[in-house]
Amino acid sequence: MGRAQANMLLLLAGAIWGAGFVAQSTAMDDMGPFLFIGLRFVLATLVCLPFAWMEARRASEKLDRASVKGFVWIGVALFLGMASQQVGLLSTSVTNSGILTGLYVVFVPVLSVIFLRQRPHAVIWPASAVAFCGIWLLSSGSMTGLSVGDLLTILCAVFWAIQVTLIGYFGQSSGRPLALSCVQFAICAALSLAVAVAIEPIRLDAIAAAAPEVLYSGIFASGLAFSLQAVGQRFTTPAQAAICLSSEALFAALFGALLLSERFTIAGYLGCLLIFLAILTVEIVPLTRNKLMQDQAAD
């Protein structure tokens, strides 16, 4: 798979997550955040399991212990990111949450340099800044002061950056993206349900009321989209992946307009333009540079 196709998979994951934002927000009317996270990732594990089994049958080598340990840590990062985002939404606005979650676009290149010793293409830094500006404008560009929820959402952005960075490393080194997805889903589900049983009410009528949201979030926004992320990140860098995945904010706004009759402001349209500009820059500039270098080598 080429880098362009991988980035398209990541864009598709962003679109699915964007649509899932509607389901995620309405599900919270019926159940607590940890129960919702746990149920969606139980479904995601069940969806992914048969594909991970087929992948294992075709694999020439068994997973080594280091890869399995890495998959577990990715699951922990996924749980911490989901938990801090969901709990943060209880005491912050959607606008602030959208802006602050988008910080992971900036955090990923920094983590890649610090922990993976990867030197991103120079275009990543301005593209990350442009993508964050787009998310800011898409969220109306207003901050009212940092609450506890805001701080939790900043923490969420750190965990998302860690998850993206770890997937970039272990997805490529193991060559088993579906096994990675299955393990991270199972870890996230187990940790979330453990917390839910300890601190949240478990009511069957609430689960039934939120069943459509749980089904969409579990099958598509979790099982499919996170698997697309794991597959796509095998063939691109974590920093480029973060830029493509930042389109989640754009698609969330689009689906909000289509499904909830929300409308863009002029700043929102400009934000959409900046996010797409950042994605296109990350995609086109390295390709153009590589082609020029190949042409010069041929001459």
From TrEMBL:
Q: Which InterPro entries match?
A: Diverse_Substrate_Transporter, EamA_dom, EmrE-like
Pfam families to which the protein is assigned, alphabetical: EamA
Q: What keywords appear on the UniProt entry? A: Cell membrane, Membrane, Transmembrane, Transmembrane helix
Q: Where are the transmembrane segments?
A: 33-54, 66-85, 97-116, 123-139, 151-171, 178-199, 214-232, 239-260, 266-285
Q: How does it sit in the membrane?
A: Multi-pass membrane protein
Q: Cellular component terms, GO, for this chain's entry?
A: plasma membrane
Residues of the EamA domain: 7-139, 149-281
In its keyword annotation, does this UniProt entry include Transmembrane?
Answer: yes
As for subcellular location, the record says: Cell membrane
PANTHER family, from UniProt? EAMA DOMAIN-CONTAINING PROTEIN (PTHR42920:SF5), OS03G0707200 PROTEIN-RELATED (PTHR42920)
Query: What is the protein's given name?
Result: DMT family transporter
Give the organism, scientific name.
Flavimaribacter sediminis
